[in-house]
Structures are given as structure tokens and as C-alpha cells.
Design brief:
By secondary structure, this protein is of the alpha+beta class. It is built from 9 helices and 15 strands. The strands form 3 sheets. The protein has a 6-stranded antiparallel beta barrel. Strands 13-12-11-14-15 form a 5-stranded parallel sheet. The two termini are 31 Å apart.
Amino acid sequence: MDTYTPIPDIDKKIDIIDHVNQDHTEELLAIAKSHLSQIKSLHEATIVSASVLDVFQEGMDIIVHLNTTLQSTKIFVPFEIEGELEDKILYQAYASIVQQGRDFSGAGKHFFKIIDKQKITTNMVRLTIESTTELPAYYPGYAYAFLLKTLKKRPHSGTLKANKKHWSKKLFDHIFVSLMKHLSSKNRQKLLQSANKDVRLYTLRKSWKKDKNARFHNQGYIDIFTHGKTPGSQWANELSAGDIIMSRSEAKDKHPHLSNGQALLIADETAYPAMAGILEHWLNPLPPYIIIISESEDEQSYFENKDLLVADQVHRVICPPEIQSTRILAIIRQITDIDVVWAAFESESAKTVRHYLRNQRQIAGKNNHTKAYWNLKSKRGTADDL
């Protein structure tokens, strides 16, 4: 029986396992599919689901559910590169997706025309957009990875959603993965940052049909919190009606765990659109505890719809980002019952709160979705690297 080297930092290991299982199911399925294809007895099986069971220095155990059996199959996926744990898993995902002839940067490009722009708080910009491809009918926390550039002319309708991968893109992806494998961890991070330096994730607040004859939801709101002179903020502030903006991929938040039990929701300004959507579609019979954070009191007007809030369970926190975790933990310690959590705010603060909920309140795994939406050190949109 093989013996593998355990990860000494247990909290870091669990953070990574939870993050991959909660937010990167497509990448995980690609890894599982790539590995199963090498096992002769299983290469024709269809994977129903996959999840990380454990992670070691040398690789990770993945539990795979197949269509050919009611039982699960555990496979060990060895890492192919040296470096940080995040790098090892990221490389496996990229290499598997490229091997399967897919585009690891996302499902394809989407184009949106801006038909209106307004400020709904001092720093929250709302873009009303129109798409010639289908928007989600409604999904709280659905986000697009926007390229920080604009087009002044609507692309031809045939190019509005590019699914077929050009040969040059395939070649670039293979070169990119090859570089990742041979670079040092430090230089690998520089390469990834360079590839993503002009991309930001912004949330689709809601969508609707332009008129009753529309075949699908083709208009919506994109709400963007602008802060300082960050590239994303400057891009959003310079946009105007008539501009065409483009996303290269999309992702939907995971929150079915909130349907039962006593929930806690936490959001700072960057996560307001996602939390507002969750509240509008609240199905749990128990109202949630809510912590709304902002650096300026003016931003709290985003949640002026009192129907979404139960007054005695809402805590409004005004503080600088550096002390988010201190203020949040002071409130959480006063809440007796917490079963499930959805939270999104600054990276280091999110880590502190996530570890407290896991280690002190025993809220872990699929019930503890406390995530980073941005990093104070870099002030870049999302801190999510995978």
C-alpha cells in the first residue's frame, strides 16, 4: 500500500479541498475524466460526479461516481509539478482540459451591449446590458469574467458566442500548460497573473425578457462596486451606453445548502449583488442572520428593500477592510445557532472567519461557503485563482 506525505497545515488543506469541491466542479470532472481514461476497465464509463477526498504532497484522492455502478470509485491522481499546493491542482485542471481539447479559459466569449448606466450608490455602478445570447433566467451569484476593454461596434451575430476553438488557441493552450510545468512556483504565479491581469468577475444582478416576444432572457443588470483607481473600477467608470463589452467565461455560485437550517449570510460591497439575489429567492422557512459590511455608510443603501431583511437579524457594519474579521467575529460569537453559511468579502478576513466557523463552531465542508471575493494586498477583483 502506498504511503503519501500529509499536508502539515490542516486548515490550508481543508480550505483547498472545500474550495475545489464547492466552486470548481467542472475542473474536477475534467481531472477525473482524464485520469479514468487511462484505466482500461473504466475508460468508457461516464462520470456522474467527482469530489476531492484528501490531498497529499504527491497527489490527491478523488471519489468518482460513475453511471455504470451505484458504488463510488476512489482514484489517486498524482501531481505532475512541484510547487505550492494550489499550483499543483491548478496545473492538473489546466492540463486535463487542454488534453480533452477544451478551452481552459472558459466556455466561450459572450458580448453585451450597454444600454444604460447609472450609479445606485456612491460607488456602485449598475450597467443595464442586452445580450443576443441567453442569460440565466435567474441565478443568484452568476458571474461573468469580463475583459477590461470595450468595443464600439456590435460584432457580427455569428461571433457572439464562440464555442469552436481555433487551432492557434489550441497551440497557445498547450504551450501555456508546458510553460507552467517547467517554471518555478514564483514565475508560474507571474505567468498566471499576466494571463488574468485584464479580467474581472462581475455579478449578473438579475435578468429579464426585453419584451413578451423574446425567446429568452436577453437583458439584465451588472452591478460593479468601484473602489479607488483599480483597473476594474477605472474600466467601469469609463463605460457608456452603446459600448460593447465582452466576457471570456462565466461561473455560478453554489448555495443549495442554504435551503435548510439556520443560515448566516455575510457580504461586503463586492458581494452585495450576489447576496441580494440570494435573499430575493430565499426558500428556507427560517430567516437568515445577515451581516452587511461597508467602508462607507452610503453604500448600505444598496439594501434599502426592507422586505428582504428581518430587522432583528440584520447587522450593519461600517469599517475599513483591514478589520472586517474582527467586527464580524464579534457579531458571530453572539449568535447561538448557525447551521449553514454563505459569505464573501476580503481574502484574509474571509480566511479568519472561515477557520473560526470550522474549528470553533464545527461548520465545515459543504455547509461553510466563506470565500474571498477580493484581496486587500492586490485590490484585484477576485482572489480566486483556480
